[in-house]
Amino acid sequence: MTEHLDRLTPRQIVFELDQYIIGQNDAKRNVAIALRNRWRRMNSPEDIQREIIPNNILMIGATGVGKTEIARRLAKIADAPFVKVEASKFTEVGYVGRDVESMVRDLVEQAVGMVRTQKKEEVKIKAEQAVEDIILDALIPPVHASGIAKAKTDTGSPNAIPEDEGELNQRTRERFREKIRNGELDSRKIEIEVQQNQSPNVGMIGGAVDDVSMMNIQEMISNMMPRRGKKRKVTVEEARKILLDEEASKLIDMDEVKLEAIKKAENLGIIFIDEIDKVASNKSGGGGPDVSREGVQRDLLPIVEGSAVTTKHGIIHTDHILFVAAGAFHVSKPSDLIPELQGRFPIRVELNSLTESDFYQILKTPKNALTKQYVAMMESEGVELEFEDGALREIAKIAFEVNSEVENIGARRLQTVMSLLLNDFMYDIPDIIGADSHIVVTAELVTEKLSALVKNRDLSQYIL
């Protein structure tokens, strides 16, 4: 489980994050150290491993500066299960709202999905062979030796069925196997049997039952009911897709998957708690909503401190899950959180507001830059899209101005600006702007389409 982390030094992790996130070097360094510390803990002497607690991180910064993206990319780099939750969606125990333990259950579900996918990939070759055999049986039923012997006995003539019929059948099957592999039979229709789970709709009379308990009850009843096969007539290509997942599932041990998933979630899991500032109680006094906010914090505390949570896949201990909390803290401040929770997020990172230069780099540098996304979408229609450097600088300037004057929503403003800039082109492709066309976005084009909106403050508020 730590082989992947072995190659990820803190500098390498920051380098990987730099491919997608501009700036915020302090935050990147801290999350890189936190991730590497997981490998260090798992490679420490066993008697001290349990004592090394994760360095949970509190990110402070306005919306759209990269808090969520840093945590999500970190999880991808580490191949770790990742869950994002909003603290404001939780409510104190006894009130209507999500139970805080649900985020841990979601993390386990993520881990189970990841491990199941990995195991299916390991047995993919065997599963493909099994699928080929099923498709061949549908195309050319096999001739069994016992059937030949019975036919000979029934007719009383040893020459009724040729001696080499079994071999001939086998050769025919092998020829068809090659055709299946080459895709020559993809459009041919065959009849297959697909296993179906009977999932009854279960209702409860009496007291309220939470969603997780209801899902568990439904799954338990579903497992008790026999599986039924359903005949379907599909093409060979469709049959291969339908049967591959089914055959791969038969080859993996789900008990082993669950155990491995719980271990992965416990040691590598990352839970990102956004909007933590929304549950911080203002020290100015008063009751009302603040009571519930503090209740949410007290419910979060044992999960972050380390506790055992029961899930449908087994018990998971949260002691070594990495928690990353984030908030803008415009109204409240980190010190408004209850002291016990503050102490569980020892690493504080303040993210910088994005500058005009940052916007320019965001449009130009990352692997998933918006400009590259639009180029790829138009390319799918056969249209070549090109952005001049001056255009990128003008887009960055407009996005920065709107954020300064209307409301600062960070890098998300670029999506609004780019959408308004290119929507006319996207609408005209392919009816008016056909394949092999070449569109060049210049600084003049950007000014022509957007400057009037920026200057008109009323329009900016509603459109940009």
UniProtKB/TrEMBL annotation:
Lineage: Bacteria, Pseudomonadati, Bacteroidota, Cytophagia, Cytophagales
Protein name: ATP-dependent protease ATPase subunit HslU
Subcellular localization, as worded in the UniProt entry: Cytoplasm
Function: ATPase subunit of a proteasome-like degradation complex; this subunit has chaperone activity. The binding of ATP and its subsequent hydrolysis by HslU are essential for unfolding of protein substrates subsequently hydrolyzed by HslV. HslU recognizes the N-terminal part of its protein substrates and unfolds these before they are guided to HslV for hydrolysis.
Organism: Dyadobacter flavalbus
Subunit structure, interactors included: A double ring-shaped homohexamer of HslV is capped on each side by a ring-shaped HslU homohexamer. The assembly of the HslU/HslV complex is dependent on binding of ATP.
Positions bound to ATP: I22, G64, V65, G66, K67, T68, E69, D274, E340, R412
Major location category of this protein: cytoplasm
Keywords: ATP-binding, Chaperone, Cytoplasm, Hydrolase, Nucleotide-binding, Protease
Region of interest called Disordered, as start-end residue ranges on this chain: 151-171
Gene field: hslU
Domain (Clp ATPase C-terminal) ranges: 354-452
GO CC terms of this entry: HslUV protease complex
Residue span(s) of domain AAA+ ATPase: 53-351
GO terms for biological process, alphabetical: protein unfolding
